[in-house]
Amino acid sequence: MLTGKYVFAQLIEFLPQKTFQRIVMKYQGDKYIKSFSCWNQLLIMMYGQLSGCESLRELVCIMSAHSPKSYHLGFGKSLITRSNLAKANANRDCKIFEEFAYKMISIAQGKRITREFEISGRFYAFDSTTIDLCLNLFWWASFRKTKGGIKVHTLYDVVTQIPTFLHITEAKVNDMNAMDEIPYEPNAYYIFDRGYFDLARLFTINLIRSNFIIRERGQLQYEIIEGEDLLEGSDNILYDQTIRLTGLQTRKKYPVLLRRVGYYSVEHKRTFTYLTNNFGISAKYVALLYKNRWQVELFFKWIKQHLHIKSFWGVTENAVRIQIYAAITAYCLVAIIEHDLKLNRSTFDVLRVLSMSLFDKTPIRELFEKPEIVDDIIEVSSAQLCFNF
Question: How far is CA 208 from the centre of its chain?
Answer without folding.
Answer: 25
